[in-house]
From TrEMBL:
GO biological process: lipid homeostasis
One cellular component term from this protein's GO annotations in UniProt: membrane
Species, as recorded: Hyphodiscus hymeniophilus
Primary location class: membrane
Name of this chain's protein: TLC domain-containing
Pfam families (alphabetical): TRAM_LAG1_CLN8
Transmembrane parts of this sequence: 33-57, 69-92, 107-126, 138-156, 162-185, 197-217, 256-277
Amino acid sequence: MRDPFFYGPSQALFEPLCDFLSLQSLSYHIHEILIVFCIYHIIFEYIAPLLSASLLSKSYNTLSYESKLRWNMHCVSMVSSVGICVLSLWTIFRDQERRHMDLGERIWGYTGAAGLVQALATGYFLFDLVVMVRYLKIFGLGMLAHASSCLLTYTLGFRPIFNYYGCVFMLYELSTPFLNIHWFFDKLGMTGTRAQLYNGLMLLGVFFCCRLIWGAYSSFNIYRDVWNALHFDAKTHDLSTNGEIMKFGGDRLLPTWLVMLYMGGHVTLQVLNVFWFGKMIAAVRKRFVKVEKKEE
């Protein structure tokens, strides 16, 4: 399936640089990355503060400088997570070329729709990394590691490699809207309410299913594909005769450094997911244990 958006004039402008960096499909999507980055920057710096101060003045205007930054970041995260999940699910169900990919195509293949998902994710993680670096003391090293790993993983995908899996791992973000709502409840004076309890239960359930269960299953699939490609490359070279999907396939090599970087990023994300799940359980319990004690 083709990218629903037109290829911008940046394709010819950035193609030599992208080819030099061995990111051959990046030139087709770099305009989308830059546009998304600018949109999220505008939301973070201008739209979120303005609308929040106007519509929720009693809550937003009393926040500290640090809490306002986090509030603005949660606004961007809400927009990004909803948009990327809808687009990922649409691509998974509608992109027939992607759905029928074989081993070689899952590793080296490319479709424009999957490339669009990859571009929007890269644009967000580029924005996320910039914010994490600017406000490192506020957001911490864990969030910086998350932004760095995600940006590295999705940028490397423009070789292209594992273009198939971009939509798959973006479904991690299905839990993010519930996390944002949970945080907003605290700042709106709704801590310990039934609404926060129900949202907290949804957050834990969706996070466990999409990040731990789905994440482990998807990681197993990509590790299996990498293992097969490395150990059965003769068989792999006989696959994937679809010229359009494999137009960036090249010599179909998997350099050791690339496998290490890509898999290292996934391992980092999986470890962070387990750590954050424990923190979420503790946070939800803390809020509602306090409420029960007050009622006693």
